[in-house]
Amino acid sequence: MPLPEIDTKLEPENGVFVNGQRIAILGSSKSGHYGHAGIPGHRGGSAARGLVDFSLLQKYEQQSPGKFLHGGKGESYMDSSLSAGGQTLQEAVLQKFGGNWEFRKTDKVLYDELEDAKKEVNVMYTHTQTVLEKEGVSSVQLYRGLALDDVVSGEKILSLTNPVASWTQSIVVAEMFASLRASGTGKKAVILKADIPINKILTCGGLNSARGMELASEWLVLGGDGIETEVMVK
Prior knowledge:
This protein is of the alpha+beta class. It is built from five helices and ten strands. Helix content is 24%, strand content 24%.
């Protein structure tokens, strides 16, 4: 059973932070040793291989990612999934696409701003679907790092998340989060791998200017009734 999601904060200049703790310094794409997103070993690729080069998407970038995704002041999804903006975005996704609150719903949902959040979700989703379809992307291979019990490599499991959850195209980033979540728990550091159709993608790095999304090769995936995944135990 997955652990509750960890609040994440991504700082492009300094690396990846979880609960205020820096867990990695990510390299610069200018060095020639890293991919366009600054992730070791991540060099983009073709849609046919399930990889999407974010640099190809930047020409379609939404300059404003929206108040609830990344509105600043520490109150958006990109600041924390537990913030008022983050929880309101989740509720808007739930009401538009369905899904479940699997864990950590709080009383911070801004119901008086929910209609605005729904509009933001609709703009993001429509933009994403239009661009990915135009670029010939039908699905993407993504990873999510968790701490789990009683699983073995190669096992197929149904991953249940909140209405929307952060996944990554970089196995390096997934490994970091899996290690951090498992540390001191006695659980296994696990990476879930999934081929996710584009109709389950809300947005991704390269398609909006939200802080850190491109750096972490991040994709926001609709949870729905669950996602079929393959387990990779570190």
